[in-house]
Structures are given as C-alpha cells and as structure tokens.
Specification:
9-stranded mixed beta sheet; homodimer; 456 residues; 2 domains; Aminopeptidase; globular; alpha+beta; Alpha-Beta Plaits; 4-stranded antiparallel beta sheet
C-alpha cells in the first residue's frame, strides 16, 4: 500500500468512524414492517456514500421489496470486473434488555464498535466503499473495474434478489463476485470461505380449543396447545443430537477423509470454545467434531417457541395456540424445498391427538461449495497475507448467504468470500460489535486486492 | 322474595349495570405491577359500594400486598354470622388481539356483559353487595349478621391472605364462609361445589450459552436452550396423558366407586363438550372420564412457554434462554410443597446436556373437600331451588381457591361455595363475560339465602 493511501486512511480515521456511526444509527431491520422508512434511509445512505467515493451510475434500483443500491466505476478496459455484494439491512434486536447499550446508538469500547449491523454487514460493506474511495481519491484511478450491488433483504433470506439478478444479469456481469459477510477464524487467523450452508425456514402453529381455557375448570380434560407443541418439537431430534426427520440426511454428501483432515487443522479448541460461550457442555450430532458440526453438517434449529402467558408471575391458563419458528442449515446436496416437504410430513405424522397443526414456509437458500484453487481465491489469499501478516485458512462456513448460490447459478463467476468479522462478534445477537483493528487491516487487505487483481 | 325487594331490583336494574360497568372498567390485574394504581382504585370502589349498601366499619385493611376490603353489619344478635369472601383483582388480558372488545370497556350483547372480571369475580362479588343492599334498603334490617372480606390477590394465589386471616381471626370470626367464585354446571343446572383442587406454580428457566448465537456460525455445535426446554417439558407427561413426574400420584386418595357414580350423573356430554370447545378430539389421563379428569384428578399444565424470536418472519438465532410457566392442580391429599419438590427433582434429573436449569416457585394452595350434608350447605341448596327453580347438583370443582383451605384451617367453619358463573364464560380467557339472567336469578337466590339462614 503506497504512502498516499496510508496517509489518507490516517487522516480519514475519525471521519470514517463518524460516517460508520451515522450508518449504524439507522434501524434498518428488514424483518419488521415498522422499519420500512429506515430501509429507505439506509439505502439512501449507501447511495450517498458511493457517490462521495466517486463511484458512478449510483442508483436505487427497485425490487418488489427493498431497493438494491447499485454503483460502478468501469474505466479499466481489459482489466477484470469485480462485483461487490453486501447488504444494508440488519437483524432484529430483541431481546433488547440484554444489550449493554442502545443497539442503534454506536458505542466504542476496548477497540470495538458496538451496534446492530456493526459486523453483519454494514461495517464490512463500509470498508469496501472506503477502500475504493481511498484508491480513487489518492491515485485518481482504479486498477480494476468495480460494480456494487448492496441489497436490503439479506436478513430475511433475499426473497427478491434472485429475480433482480436474473433480470439485471447484463448490468451485473463481472469476472469475480466479492463478498465480505463472513468471519475469520480469530483475530490473527484470516480465512477464505469456500462453502456455505443452505437454509430453509418454517413456522409451526398449533391450535387446540377455540380459545384459551381456565386450567382449573378444564385442566386434565382438554388438549393443551403447548403440551402438543413441546411433544412435537421434541420429536424432531434424537437423544444423540441428530435430526429425527425421516430421510433428512439422505442427500447429504458425506465428508471425505481429506476434507475431515483439512477441517481438523483449523485453529479450534473445544475447551476454549466451551469456556468462551460459558456453556456447561458442548452438544451436537454424535460422530462429528465441533468444527464439522457447525461448518459441514446440516441442522434443524428452534429459533423461537411461544405460547400462553409470558408476563410476571403466573396465569392459570390452558393455551389454545402455540408457535414455533424453525430454520435448517443445509449442506450439499440437500434441497431446501425437499427438506421442507420432509419436515411438513414429520409434523403431519407426529401431530398429537386433540390439536391441529399448520406449517408456514418461509425463505430457502441452497447450500454452496466452490473450488478454492481458482486464481480469484488465490489472489485473495495473498491480499490477506499482506493485510494480516499471516496466511489464511481455507474453510467452510456454517452460515447461509443464499444469494451466493444464486449469483453462482446465474452469473457463473467465481465467488470470493473475504470476511473480516470475528466469530465472537455477536452476529444476530445482543451486543453485536466489530473490531476496529480488523477494520484497519481489512482496508489494507482490500486495497491490496483491488490493486493486484490485475495480475490474475 | 317480598314485593318490595322485587320492585327494588326492577327499579335499580339499569343503575346496577352502570355500577358494575364502572367496576369492570378498572384494570385491576394483580399479576402486573404496572397496574398498582388500578388495584387501589378497585379496592376503593369496593369500599364505596359497601358504604352505599349501608354496611358498617368499611375499611381498607393493609397487607404486605394489596389491601383487603372489610365491612360488616352485625345487628342480629343470636343469629348466625356469614363471612362473604370475594376478590376485586382480575387475570391479565393477553392475548389482547383475541378480544372482540376492549377487556376494560364493558359491552352488553345477547344478554351477557363482556369484560375481564365480569364473572371472575367482580360480577359475583357485586351481586352479594347488591343483595345485602336490597335487604337493608327495603326492610331496614338484616335477618343475619354479615362480614365482607374482599381481597385483591386471588389471581396471584393470595400470597398475603393467610397471614391476614390468621392475624384477624377474631374480626373475621363467623359461622359460615360464603364464596361466589365458582361456576354452575349450565344455565339451568346450579351446583354446590363441595371440593376444590389445590395448586402449585413454578417457572423453569433454561440457560445455554452466555448470549444468543447465530444459527449459521454455531448451529449444530452448541446447545440450544429451546431444544433443551422442549425435551425437558415433553418428559413431564407420558404418552397416555398422565403426569410422568416420579411419585406425583403417590398421595392421591383414589376416587371411591360411590363418588365416581355421583360424578357420572352430572350433566355432561363428551361430544357436545368437544364441539363447544371446537376441539378435534378430547385428550386426558387414560382410565378416567372427562368429568373426573377436570374435577377430581391432578394435573400438570404448561401455562406459558417462550424463548427466542417471536416477531414477524424468521430470525436465525440459537436462543440462549428459554422459559416455561407451569401450574399443577392437586387433589386430596397431595401437598403442594411436596409436589414442587418432586417436580424440581424431575427437572434436575432430566436437564439435558449443555444447559443449566433454574426452578422458581410461585404460590401454592392445598386441595379442599368438605361435607355436603352440613346445614349451611343444605340451606344453600334450598336457596338455589328458589332462585333457579331446580334442585342443584353436588359437585367438585377443578379450580383452586387456595384461600378456602386457609379459612377452613384457621376459622374452622363450613365453607359454602355458591357460584353463579357458567362454564363457558371464559374465566381467565379472552371475551370473559357474565350472564345477566344469572345475575337476576343469583340476586334472588342470595336474598333468599340471607333471609332464611336464620332457620339453620
């Protein structure tokens, strides 16, 4: 990285934090319709930042949901074009009482910036904009071509992006898709992710009597929606931690011994992991290591269960309704729609006497695995080495970015997942934060990547 | 009932409805601390109504919780003294969206008054005050002595009343305890309740990791508080509907064949009951009839279960915490404290790997059974026959009024449970209501009871 860029970053540091804070103040929660205006504000914020960074053709492009923010800078003929994908929406913040600070009032403490979206994904998108801005403002040129595609529905499963990408495939055409929405393995362990889990989501609603009933007058003689729900939900797993839905694992490609060896060398320590999470014990599917469990094995997870009284004290009620929100993480070659079919059949077969069940399907995303010996990915490895001073690991990641599979399928270009988050930064949880050290190192890494990709 | 009283009730009818409505407008939810002021307002309302009814020594008597409203009229020496117990507090109203009207804006429709507390217990307490008022205002005297003891914590298990009754046992001394907080068997089927189930309540809190985790980054490798909770809760019942807690039934006095025969003649029809509740099937402990199940068998009921995301759409989170609220209905000779010990031991033994559980105990109440051949109860039977034109049934009731057992134990007097509610009036549920026809018939019944108890 040349001196001008170094000086630029030093000079801009406080300004960067102020700008990032103004973005993090926008409560762009895509899952909650009450935040519709915040979605527009966040999209406009992104457009303004891209304009300020000297990018061109900045536009809010409508979808049937929240708009996609597009921008490009295409003045390096014969050079590769990088499509940068990110998202400006964030996860909901409840339980709010577990946040040490307002999730939308960014707070800096111990070298970390705390706010919803700090690491997932506003902070990381912001780095890309600032890396490009630094190159354009100090060198007046860009050694590659770039396009930005920043969406506002990633946290609800990108329901409208597949249609958008398909319709705009000429506009989005590129040589490489670059995404920073994943994590490294630790502060000194950058990692390139070559696989992601897929996702499917559903809700189960149980209905017993027409209304809640008094537990004294009716208790013992009528079905209780919560009894039925917990019985049904308990049937979804076996005692040894596997998913008990029939045929759930049928399409899973077993891990090869080579891959198991590769995952085994990743820096991970069960005892440390358990201690860090303050868990009395680890628990997961038997026959697999912790790393295998969260990177390369499918899951069925209860994300929310609710029914009946939740207030202070007690209420002697027999709930008429009970609900469960479920997501599965899937691996190749599980098909999310087929998995939803299997779960729906399981629910049908295991519905207890005296209640009815309804299954509502939400978003789905296919799992994804790419080759990690492509030039685009090897180039990213070199950039990480320059930025962080160590060679990166190659890993799979347990999370899902369904859009990765969509881009892969529609645009047919290599996908480079270059994450700067850390595993303990509370993605989707209270007190989400982002390391300011990784912000600095990440900027260096990205500038190097943009500068040197021309050699690919 | 003499003509003056009849005319009085006719003349006062609209005024009664206005007064009852003003009481029902007070949101005196004892379970929620935000309603503290409403509790005071409801207590004051009761005191004013007792004063207006010409009762004496009207007082709000402090407890460590909500005050007890006391009043008396003791001008019939040599005549028996009736202690009337009721409560001015009500259940919470959630889920609010299932109410057709504001629960605290009384609405009259099809001969029923709809509001939280309409039948449980404000409407029924109101009848007692109006019956006494009618006698005092038309005849200027009362053929018996009465004392009122109206508390404000019945819906949270009367935590402070035992101490109050014990301290005030001289003030409360009486020959009969009269309570209208139960239901009849149907519109033309008045019933005298000679037994009540006991109660114990607890909350289970499950804690997994120190905070919620991303289901992609961690899913499969860490315990999920909801998985653990549903597994634990499912273990509390057997597949045939019995409670699976070890030794739970050990102290239950089995139903005698005589008692089973008596319960079998009560007007009940399984098909009608199921249809009325809009249930796909009835479900309960095998080996017992529906009536036995809800009147005379113990239960363990999930009143509330919650953890994780409950908003719109999905959230890919592994919840760190999950909660269950549980109450048991108990029968003689189960001891509520001992039952809580057994459940706590069950939770300890069945806590899944990777989580910790905490049990919080709430209120308890012992079960109660009385002799139904006492003069006080036979007198009540006659009053019902006059008021409703049919002989009442003798029944046990599945609900719990823990204070009944307390009065029984401390004051050693017969307890007469003379209910005017109907089983489908949604006690503790949305759209609670009270039959205005039963209000009228109940007033006649009570006036007759107060007038003729002197013959006992």
């Amino acid at each position: 990285m040349n001196e001008h860029i170094k000086q630029h970053f030093s000079k801009e540091k406080i300004h960067h934090l102020e700008q990032l804070s103004s973005l993090l103040r926008i409560a762009s929660i895509s899952a909650l319709s009450a935040h519709k205006e915040d979605m527009t504000n966040a999209a406009n914020w992104m457009a303004d930042a891209l304009t300020e960074a000297c990018l061109e053709h900045v536009a809010l492009m409508p979808t049937k949901g929240n708009p996609v923010v597009y921008a490009d800078y295409l003045h390096a003929p014969e050079k590769p074009t990088i499509l940068v994908y990110g998202h400006y929406d964030v996860q909901p913040v409840d339980p709010l009482e577990l946040w040490d600070n307002d999730p939308f009032e960014p707070t800096i403490c111990d070298g970390k910036i705390y706010a919803r979206g700090a690491s997932d994904d506003k902070g990381q998108v912001f780095m890309h904009i600032k890396a490009i801005e630094a190159l354009l403002k100090t060198t007046k040129q860009l050694p590659v071509n770039v396009k930005f595609c920043i969406e506002g529905e990633e946290e609800i499963g990108s329901p409208h992006l597949p249609e958008f990408v398909d319709k705009q495939k000429d506009l989005l055409a590129a040589d490489i898709l670059l995404i920073s929405d994943t994590t490294m393995l630790g502060p000194d362990a950058p990692a390139i992710c070559y696989g992601l889990r897929g996702l499917c989501a559903l809700q189960i609603d149980v209905q017993a009597a027409k209304s809640d009933l008094h537990s004294g007058l009716y208790g013992g003689a009528v079905p209780n929606a919560l009894h039925a729900l917990v019985e049904l939900l308990a049937s979804l797993h076996t005692a040894d931690g596997a998913v008990a839905v029939k045929s759930f694992y049928d399409d899973v490609i077993p891990l090869t011994s080579n891959e198991r060896e590769a995952l085994a060398v990743l820096p991970h320590n069960d005892a440390k992991y358990q201690k860090q999470l303050e868990l009395p014990a680890l628990f997961g599917e038997s026959g697999y290591s912790t790393v295998e469990r969260y990177m390369a094995r499918p899951t069925l997870e209860l994300n929310g269960v609710y029914g009946g009284f939740q207030g202070e004290g007690t209420k002697t009620v027999i709930p008429a309704r009970a609900h469960a929100k479920i997501t599965c993480r899937l691996v190749n070659n599980q098909d999310p729609i087929h998995i939803l079919d299997l779960i729906e059949e399981h629910v049908r077969m295991h519905t207890p006497v005296g209640v009815t069940t309804k299954v509502t399907r939400y978003d789905t995303g296919r799992p994804f695995v790419t080759r990690f010996d492509s030039p685009a990915i090897q180039s990213a490895a070199t950039a990480y080495e320059v930025g962080f001073g160590v060679k990166p690991f190659y890993m799979r990641m347990g999370g899902s970015i369904p859009i990765v599979e969509v881009f892969d399928r529609i645009l047919h270009i290599p996908v480079v997942l270059m994450g700067f988050g850390l595993p303990d930064e509370n993605f989707h949880a209270p007190n989400e934060h982002f390391s300011l050290e990784n912000f600095d190192k990440g900027l260096r890494t990205l500038v190097y990547y943009y500068e040197h990709l021309e050699t690919v």
